[in-house]
Amino acid sequence: PNTAAMVAAEQHLDILTKPPGSLGKLEALAVRLAGITGEVKPSFTERAVIVMAADHGVCEEGISAFPAEVTPQMVLNFLTGGAAVNVLARQAGAKVNCVDIGVNSDLSHPDLISRKVRYGTANMAQGPAMSREEAEKALLIGAEVVENAVARGVSLFVTGEMGIGNTTASAAIVSALTDISPLGSVGRGTGINDERLRHKIAVVERALKINEPDPTDPIDVLAKVGGLEIAGLTGVILAAAANHCPVVIDGFISSAAALLAQRIAPESANYMISSHVSNEQGHASLLQELGLQPMLHMDMRLGEGTGGVLALHLIDAACRIMAEMATFESAGVSSAEPATADEDGQ
Amino acid sequence: PNTAAMVAAEQHLDILTKPPGSLGKLEALAVRLAGITGEVKPSFTERAVIVMAADHGVCEEGISAFPAEVTPQMVLNFLTGGAAVNVLARQAGAKVNCVDIGVNSDLSHPDLISRKVRYGTANMAQGPAMSREEAEKALLIGAEVVENAVARGVSLFVTGEMGIGNTTASAAIVSALTDISPLGSVGRGTGINDERLRHKIAVVERALKINEPDPTDPIDVLAKVGGLEIAGLTGVILAAAANHCPVVIDGFISSAAALLAQRIAPESANYMISSHVSNEQGHASLLQELGLQPMLHMDMRLGEGTGGVLALHLIDAACRIMAEMATFESAGVSSAEPATADEDGQ
């Protein structure tokens, strides 16, 4: 990041008519955005949610409350604008870019970005989810989608995904790469009961035992226990960072992709904006692992990018604060009393 | 609240293309808004932030990092549109209504609502902050401002305030009305150091000891250890509730007003929308006391209504979800598998 711009942003924040630091995470966000863009007063006119969709062979194990056929059905819902992410993206002035990177059926729609790597992953509870080559191919597709969007003028990205079974793959990735055990990483996803939750934990444990993913090799982890949409999102995050664009990380699955991106290129973490902490077990610890501070506590657990697009309003708020607020001097407002000037740094 | 509309809202939420309950607090908010307005798909075109401004005699005790002259200076900043609340209100399509309910100097501006009850409160560390009559007058002014706004078509309110010294008065109110002691209710306000924090706690303890406010009589508490802007906001909240309008509660000071409103008319709590939990010590416990669940965790501590206006985007999001999302039937999406239907209720 551009540290000179970050220092300039901090200095600007301190002359605005408010007690120093009193806008909390909004100020931290403004400073991060300056570091990412190199501008003290950035603005993001074109913003896109990249929704990567793929299926998961592990659904054979009965780990989800919803049938796998919901993946292609929801892709069509994204394309006709009826899903939650469409509604919330419209509100935030963002376009939804839907990518078929591995749905287990043939899909066709003029607005669909068709980049199917394979018809869903294999069942990771019985062997690797995909080959290393497939994982790399999916990563590059994510990067390509971002490059194309940047060429169209997009300067702010939100990660989103659809894939019945993908909280299972995400939990396996998190447990493979961190000290968080499946008991801490596996959650209820779209809504399973205690019995199925125990089963889901056992499935993740089995996938990790059978595949032995190498924790020092994120691509190995991605290929063996990951998913095609997770690989695509990892590519999205890395390419957004490479293009000096902020990328808003949605929920648990997006955060698993963020963890992979951080392990592949640690510098990419500087470009990640945390949005919300979801209700999915493991998300809070995962964000801590990433050093990200969520702004929204909505108890959401939908994915798609829904929490991410809500955070766009907060990014806009940070930008407007930098661009529009009066200074102590311009407004003729007294600053903190000299005797207590030392109190302002906290 | 309209319970039939709430039930209808819950039923509508459950046919939308998402796992039941997966939008978390956004769904709870949609249900509350239905209860408040009687409409399953409400929308709020005209929204106003009511910023009540007043001074505090207790500033004589040296409890703030900023001099009292900042109160009138910031009022002018609100009127010329340069303060943080102006910037964030513009973003959310809300108008800022600034009320001089007790600033300790003469102010004049065409957009200022001039309803000065007195030139600031008296020093509560030496006697009552104001008379009971003055507290009641300030309450009614808050109600009057809301009635006038409702007549202009406003249907959604945000509370805001300005008054150097008002975290001290708010802490005294909270400690007078609840089991939270001054050690738990007094915070750093605009930014004081440890030494001044200890002094501020002692000042609040003294104010409570000298005035002996009656915890069963919220108006007595308001008069003896409150503030004119806090009384005004209490009136705003009560009148918004009486007009079946949601009222977004901002930070610590607004929440102290909300506590008073709830003690005067418990039913008014059904009309309060919590926005954020601030960094001011005591706010989290105060929200718990009120049974409100904040959506934003921004570490903000500015007041003015800044956290409240940020929450307007979340209210809009809840409204759009109700109005625009596709249903399982309309989008042709399968719902949870029958075998696991029992899992959906959580």
Kindly report the spatial arrangement of strands forming the biggest sheet of chain A: 3-2-1-4-5-6
CATH classification class of the largest domain in chain A: Alpha Beta
Query: What is the C-alpha radius of gyration of chain A, as a whole number of Å?
Result: 21 Å
Largest interface: A-B, 69 and 69 residues
Uncertain regions spanning at least 5 consecutive residues of chain A: 339-346
How would you state the average pLDDT of chain A, rounded?
96
CATH superfamily of the largest domain in chain A: Nicotinate-nucleotide-dimethylbenzimidazole phosphoribosyltransferase (CobT), large domain
The CATH architecture of the largest domain in chain A is 3-Layer(aba) Sandwich
- The number of strands of chain A is 6
Short description:
2 copies of one chain form a homodimer. Chain A has 346 residues and is α/β, with parallel strands linked by helices.
Could you explain the architecture of this structure?
Two copies of one chain form a homodimer. With 346 residues, the first copy, chain A, is α/β, with parallel strands linked by helices. The first copy, chain A, folds into two domains: 3-42 and 321-343, Orthogonal Bundle (5,6-Dimethylbenzimidazole Phosphoribosyltransferase, Chain: A, domain 1), CATH 1.10.1610.10; 47-313, Nicotinate-nucleotide-dimethylbenzimidazole phosphoribosyltransferase (CobT), large domain (Rossmann fold, 3-Layer(aba) Sandwich). Chain A is built from 14 helices and six strands. The first copy, chain A, has helices at residues 3-15, 25-37, 70-80, 84-91, 132-151, 166-177, 182-185, 194-211, 218-225, 228-242, 252-264, 283-290, 306-324, 328-331; strands at residues 47-54, 94-102, 113-114, 156-162, 247-249, 272-274. Chain A has a six-stranded parallel beta sheet with strand order 3-2-1-4-5-6, sandwiched between helices. In chain A, helix 11 links the parallel strand 5 (247-249) and strand 6 (272-274). In chain A, helix 5 (132-151) crosses helix 9 (218-225), helix 6 (166-177) crosses helix 8 and helix 6 packs parallel to helix 11 (252-264). The relative contact order of chain A is 0.17. At the A-B interface, helix 3, helix 4 and helix 13 of A face helix 3, helix 4 and helix 14 of B.
